[in-house]
Each structure stands twice: as C-alpha cells, then as structure tokens.
Design goal:
By secondary structure, the protein is an alpha+beta fold. Helix content is 29%, strand content 26%.
Length: 496
C-alpha cells in the first residue's frame, strides 16, 4: 500500500485546502495520474498517484485543511489494479459512441505552476460544424488565457460548460471527424453569407476570442472586413481596435436609426478572473494589516536624462539591452536601503526581520492585471544586469510564464505609474514588505534654480511605508536619499 502525501506547498505556505478528488474509493488509478487538487492562498497544486493500483482510502475530504506531509489517502498496489485498469480505457469509446472516429479536445498545458483554469465562453455550441484549427474557447488561469482550437474538422460536442474548472489534459469536448461532418462543413459557410448583411459579427464569430468579440460588438464592426494578424488566421484584439478608426466615418449612418436599448444592456455581470481575485484579496489584506502612510518628494531628472541620452546608443550596442530609468532607480533604492535598513525589513508577530539581501519587486502591468516579479540580488547587479533582468521578467509576465518562485520573497517594491501618465499616487504596500516606491510621469515644470526660474523635467516620488516599523524620519530620509542619488548620479559611483 502506498500513501498519498501532501507535498511541500512553497515558500511561506503552511497549509492548503482540498479542492476536489478526481477519483473515488475503489477506482483504478495509474502511477502519476492526478488524484486530488489542493488550493493555497498563492497557487493550486496537483497530487498524483504514487503507484498503479486501486484508490483504497480517502482520509481528507473536499474542503478539509491539510499541511505538508498529511496522508490524504492510500493506493493499494496489486492484481486488482491490473484487472480493473482496462475499464477506463474501455469506457472511453462508450463515453462518445456517436463520435465515430471523433477527436478529443483536451485542455493544454497552461504554464509552469498553473494547475487549473476556468472555461471561458464557447464560441460554438454542441452540434455546430467546425473547421480544423478554428478557435473554440479560451481557458482563463490566474496568469494567462490559453486558446483552444479544434483538433480536426467535424461536428462539435461540448462536455465542459462555460465557467467550469478544468485541469491540463482534461477532455472538454470532442470533434466527430466523419465524412458526414466534412460534407456538412460548407453548409454553415454558405448560410453565413446572407447573414453578413444583417449582422456584422455573425460570419467571423467562430474566429473571435471573447475579448475581440466584445470590441467588435461594441463598435458595430464587420469581422469579414477585418485583417487577421493572429496565429492560425485569427483576428486579434489589436486588429479590431485598429479597425475602429477606419470604421468611424460610417458611424453617423449607422447611428441614424435609433437602436432599442434592449440591444445594449445597461449592466453586464462578469466573473472576476483568478488573477484579479488574487490581486483584490492581497491588496485588501495589505490595507487591513499594515499602518500605511505615504510621503512625497520630487526629483529633478535633468542629469539622469542627460546621462542616459549620452550613452544609450553605446550602452545598447555593448550590452544588447536599452538603458532605461528603472536601472537608475533600482540602484538608488538599493543604496538607500543599505542606509535605512528598516525599510528593507518586515514584521513577524512581535519580531522584526531585517533583510541583508536586496530582492526588488518590479510591478508589471499585463492585460490580465498587475503582477510583481522579483529581481534577485539587485545590489550585485550592474546597470546592464538590472535592465536585462527587468526585461526578462517583464516578458515572462506578459507571456503568462512567471513561476511562483519569481513572484515570492521580495524585500522592497518599485512601481512605475508614470508609464501610463500618472502624475501622483499613493501605492499600496506589497505585504509583508514595509516599503514601496512609486515613480510617476516626467513633466516639464518651471523651477527656481539658484534664484532663477528654469524649466526642468520633474518627477514626483511617493514612498508608502509601514509606520509600525518605519518612523517618519526614516521614511523621509530614505526618499531624500533617492532624490540626491538621482539628481547627482556621480554620488552613486563615488559611494557618497
């Protein structure tokens, strides 16, 4: 008999909840087959069968809280398993007898450390004819949306409804790739042609993801007239947005007949994505836990901008990466953290943990929400090393390829709202950290310089800090130190 144990749950994760068992007692299982899913406050984990056999015991039920090492159940090894193992294989054809050579639609791998996702809106319904590689549905995870296309041409059968939770490899439908299906395939296309005159979105609806479908519907675009730049000939959201301006002149004619309000609901209820739920929970926890306070200052970016303009071309040729402002800010932050260690610390109960490493979280905005990957040992990196590290983390964030290890363990965070035009803000702490620096837009403003009014590129800086551990004097000193290092970059080189 082999025990099914709760695995290690990751850094700072002490417990998990049983999400669901995929098998019941008495079922035959194969080694490495997923048996149970665990949920923590950071990630979902899959627990697999330790051996071939029969699931003989379940010790923790759905919803129970478990810790690493807990025995969740047991698998009995032996002849009974081999006798019963063929049953699932034999049952597969029985599950879809009408498929007659049908091809399963399986959930693809959704990225490292992503154990489950949610079915979005199916773009086709059961019984519809689909073409090979035609987009059928998007699966949303807490990091990325994964497109699922038809594996063959034929008739679609859906087995997982909108909103259902699914795991990699799970069958969510099938396509009956038969001669009848192939013969029927041209019929919907022919029927769709006249529909094009009455409905702009009907002909291309099969090739539109939910996000694209929304842009097309809200702007009365004709999918048949859109250029498709996406993979497999699909129309992307960028294609639809680009077509809005081109379609604008026709808008007055379309607006002449007043459309009834029923065609445009006043409200729309949409389930939050997993990533958005995690962001909402963590931000509220941060507000409820820390005594947050924000102090402000402004920095004259003249010297940094001049230095960057002077060396950016040589820098890019030498290091293969562009020289941005984030590397200067990261260097300044690290030096200020050395001098004011309380900002690089955290509270644990009645203890203060001072960090002697400088792992800087860099907030990155993605289509799905805000994530904060961590640049490790920033104090040991050069400007080029910082820029390369930030570029790699940013790309992984936008591709939905970040691992949990890349988003844990930061000691301080930098967020740049200036890239979106923000003039000033009060960032929320990324707990359990005690400080976060907010960068903002660079704006030309008149400033008094040595008794004269001069136009200078100015940026407001905001430091939010946990007042339980960082005093006002330390916070202000920290922010002033960053200001000094940025206004006179030579200070950092001379360690002044």
């Amino acid at each position: 008999m082999a025990d099914i144990l709760t695995p290690a749950l990751g850094e700072s994760v002490a417990e998990a909840s049983i999400a669901k068992w995929t098998k019941k007692v008495g079922d035959a299982v194969k080694k490495d087959e997923v048996l149970v899913e665990l949920e923590t406050d950071k990630v979902s984990l899959e627990v697999v069968a330790p051996a071939d056999g029969v699931l003989s015991a379940i010790n923790a039920n759905d919803g129970d809280t478990v810790v690493p090492g807990t025995v969740l159940g047991a698998v009995t090894e032996g002849g009974a398993a081999s006798a019963s193992a063929p049953a699932p294989a034999a049952a597969a054809p029985a599950a879809a007898p009408a498929a007659s050579g049908g091809v399963d639609i399986a959930v693809p791998t959704m990225g490292e450390s992503v154990a489950e996702g949610s079915i979005g809106t199916w773009l086709k319904k059961s019984g519809d004819t689909v073409a090979k590689d035609e987009l059928l549905v998007e699966i949303e995870t807490d990091k990325v949306a994964v497109e699922v296309s038809a594996p063959a041409a034929g008739v679609l059968t859906i087995t997982a409804a909108d909103g259902a939770t699914v795991t990699p490899g799970q069958v969510i439908g099938s396509v009956a790739a038969s001669g009848a299906a192939a013969a029927a395939a041209p019929a919907p296309a022919a029927a769709a042609a006249p529909a094009n005159t009455g409905s702009a979105q009907a002909p291309a609806s099969a090739h539109l993801s939910p996000a694209v479908q929304r842009v097309v519907s809200e702007n009365n675009l004709n999918p048949a007239s859109l250029s498709a730049s996406g993979p497999k000939g699909n129309i992307t959201k960028a294609d639809a947005i680009a077509a809005i301006g081109a379609a604008a002149p026709a808008a007055p004619k379309a607006a002449a007949p007043a459309a009834p309000r029923a065609d445009q609901p006043r409200e729309e209820r949409v389930k939050m994505t997993r990533l958005r739920q995690t962001i909402a929970r963590r931000l509220k926890e941060s507000q409820n836990t820390a005594a947050q306070l924000t102090t402000f200052n402004e920095v004259d970016m003249t010297n940094v901008m001049a230095l960057r303009a002077q060396y950016k071309e040589v820098f890019e040729k030498r290091h293969g990466v562009k020289l941005g402002f984030m590397s200067f800010f990261t260097k300044a932050v690290v030096q200020a953290l050395h001098e004011i260690p309380a900002v690089n610390a955290e509270i644990d109960g009645t203890d203060i943990i001072y960090k002697n490493h400088y792992d800087i979280g860099i907030a990155v905005g993605t289509d799905k929400g805000l994530v904060v990957p961590v640049l490790r040992d920033a104090d040991a990196l050069s400007l080029a090393g910082i820029e390369k590290g930030i570029a790699a983390l940013g790309k992984a964030a936008r591709d939905g390829a970040l691992t949990m290890d890349q988003m844990q363990g930061g000691t301080f965070t930098i967020t740049n709202g200036g890239t979106y035009g923000s003039l000033m803000s009060t960032p929320i702490l990324n707990t359990p950290q005690s400080g976060i620096l907010g960068m903002h837009n660079i704006v030309q403003r008149p400033m008094a310089v040595n008794g004269e009014v001069k136009i200078r590129p100015m940026m407001y800086l905001a430091l939010s800090y946990d007042h339980r551990i960082v005093d006002g004097k330390e916070a202000v000193t920290f922010l002033v130190r960053i200001k000094e290092l940025l206004e006179d970059p030579a200070r950092a080189l001379l360690d002044l």
